[in-house]
Design goal:
The complex is a heterodimer of chains A (122) and B (110).
Chain A: E1 3-6, E2 10-12, E3 18-25, E4 32-39, E5 45-51, E6 58-60, E7 68-73, E8 78-83, E9 92-101, E10 111-112, E11 116-120
Parallel strand pairs in A: 2-11
Antiparallel strand pairs in A: 1-3, 3-8, 4-5, 4-9, 5-6, 7-8, 9-10, 9-11
Chain B: E1 9-12, E2 18-23, E3 35-40, E4 47-50, E5 64-69, E6 72-77, E7 86-93, E8 99-101, E9 105-109
Parallel strand pairs in B: 1-9
Antiparallel strand pairs in B: 2-6, 3-4, 3-7, 5-6, 7-8, 7-9
The chains are: A mainly beta (122), B mainly beta (110).
């Protein structure tokens, strides 16, 4: 079965960077888009960006103004999300989500990781 | 990209039907057939309920249905059950090849 297993919780100082990993199994990693979504405590979902694991092409939300970088390592079926210049309002649970097959005319986030809590505090 | 607008809360009694709206613009909901809905229970990751406006993944109850008119998409839950109590989020593909989520709706079963 499809599984997305994320790295563990992180505590960071303001201004630092964090890199969260998402290891995929149970499907062809390079065949499906992979997205990142975050949720601040008590708040709603916020889309961050996607990666095409096959080509490495990415797209991020303008909100993050270049602070977010999504990469992948196909040899270990793992995607990464790095967020720089951390602020207190970046404190959130960060999710990866498997999306549509590459090239398909459909759109959905059908499998989600368990979430990674990133706390930004001095 | 601003979040899509959803009512903060919707409630209903068991057996009733409720509808959650999701209002965007012509740059997202109005211009896309890629609208999806997610259910989230407290402390859990979201789960997909509807995709491509009105398609239901295998395993999702037929009590859940989706539709769209203009810039507003809707999720209807019929024959409301206690287990449906959760937060619900819509999502839409946008004309700049990004995604946007709705503000979220808390569904309460009375």
């Amino acid at each position: 079965q499809v599984q997305l297993v994320q790295s563990g919780a992180e505590v960071k100082n303001p201004g630092a960077s964090v890199k969260v990993s998402c290891k995929a199994s149970g499907y062809t990693f390079t065949g499906y888009y992979l997205h990142w979504v975050r949720q601040a405590p008590g708040q709603g979902l916020e889309w961050m960006g996607w990666i095409n694991p096959n080509s490495g092409a990415t797209k991020s939300a303008q909100t993050f103004q270049g602070r977010v970088t999504v990469t992948r390592d196909t040899s270990i079926s793992t995607a990464f999300m790095e967020l720089t210049g951390l602020r207190s309002d970046d404190t959130a649970v960060y999710y990866c989500a498997k999306a549509a097959p590459i090239g398909a005319s459909t759109s959905l986030f059908d499998n989600w990781g368990q979430g990674t809590l990133v706390t930004v505090s001095s | 990209q601003s979040a899509l607008t959803q009512p903060a809360s919707v409630s209903g009694s068991p057996g009733q039907s409720i509808t959650i709206s999701c209002t965007g613009t012509s740059s997202d909901v109005g211009g896309s057939n890629y609208v999806s809905w997610y259910q989230q229970h407290p402390g859990r990751a979201p789960t997909l309920m509807i995709y491509d406006v009105n398609h239901r993944p295998s395993g999702v109850s037929p009590r859940f249905s989706g539709s769209k008119s203009g810039n507003t998409a809707s999720l209807t839950i019929s024959a409301l059950q206690a287990e449906d109590e959760a937060d619900y989020y819509c999502s839409s593909f946008t004309n700049i090849i990004t995604y946007v989520f709705g503000t979220g709706t808390k569904v309460t079963v009375l």
